Amino acid sequence: MLVTWFIVPIDKAKVQQLVQFPLITPPFSDKTLFPTGFPPNTHPVVVATGYMNDIRMGDLQIEALTGGSVLVPYTDRLRDGRKIPFNTAVRNYIGGVNGNVLGGVVPSIVGTLGGSTIFTATFAPDNDAYAPIASNPNEFSAEVKQVIIPNPISGPGVVPEAFDFDFITAKTPLYTARTFHALINQPIILTNGLCQRNPYYFNETFAAPSLRSGNVTLFGPTAGALPSQLAGRYVKQGGYSASGEMVGYNAELCSQSAMRQDPQAFQ
């Protein structure tokens, strides 16, 4: 799957309002993760959108999907003093491809039943992870809109925007590839009291990793689909695009997720 992730600094008090468990202060002094530091009194929020063409749902006639998420890493799920970081999913989105607005409905239901609340969405583009803008082939964009009331016949229905990206390849990156590996590969906290490991691996020849620089717009409830705590336009943020293999494990006790993490996934 080809995904673009961006790290957005958001007021720590606002982020705490969105998660059930205490936040852990990330290791901002670690220059391999945060080479330029991080804005004071903020917490990293990871926003992602991607194209998944290795779907194992052939029996449902689903060959490809689009997906997006808003994650809060460094969440102290265990609260046992060890400060083991987990990801809290603020939003998960999934959609069809090539104009199939309802293509994400069944996967969203399956995922929600499994402990991950997933909303159906439309993506632009819906046949790739991002697309070059018309005026500059070296500048890219991606957009995610939540489908609240679909209208596949005459469209568009009620589809408020969730977030969008506008980015280029970074000349002076804010982060390293390891930054993103360390944040996105933290176990996910599920809604059923369990957790799940979904590590990404980027050691294939087709990974084509690229550090990015761009603008991220998160649309709050006034004009969009995200919580008001996240709303804003965040300029010149650091991102990462890569084609990775995501290995999904079964849901398990959160303490087991913590113990069974693969250190190689964080490198």
Mean pLDDT: 90
- Given the structure, what is the number of helices? 4
Percent helix, as a range, is 10-25%
Distance between the termini: 19 Å
Question: Mind summarizing the main beta sheet?
Answer: 9 strands, mixed, barrel
Encode the helix/strand succession as letters.
EHEEEHEEEEHEEEEEEH
Search tags:
single chain; 267 residues; mainly beta; nine-stranded mixed β-barrel; two-stranded antiparallel ribbon; 4 helices; 10% helix; 37% strand
Describe this structure in words.
- This protein is mainly β.
- The protein is 10% helix and 37% strand.
- It contains 4 helices and 14 strands.
- The chain has helices spanning 12-16, 105-113, 177-184, 254-259, and strands at 2-11, 42-52, 65-75, 86-95, 119-124, 131-133, 136-146, 161-169, 188-189, 195-196, 200-201, 210-218, 232-243, 245-246.
- The protein has a 9-stranded mixed barrel with strand order 1-2-3-4-5-7-8-12-13. A two-stranded antiparallel sheet has the order 11-14.
- Helix 2 (105-113) links the parallel strand 4 and strand 5 (119-124).
- The longest helix is centred in the middle third of the chain and has 9 residues, at 105-113.
- It is globular, with a radius of gyration of 18 Å.
- The chain starts with a strand and ends in an 8-residue tail after the last helix.
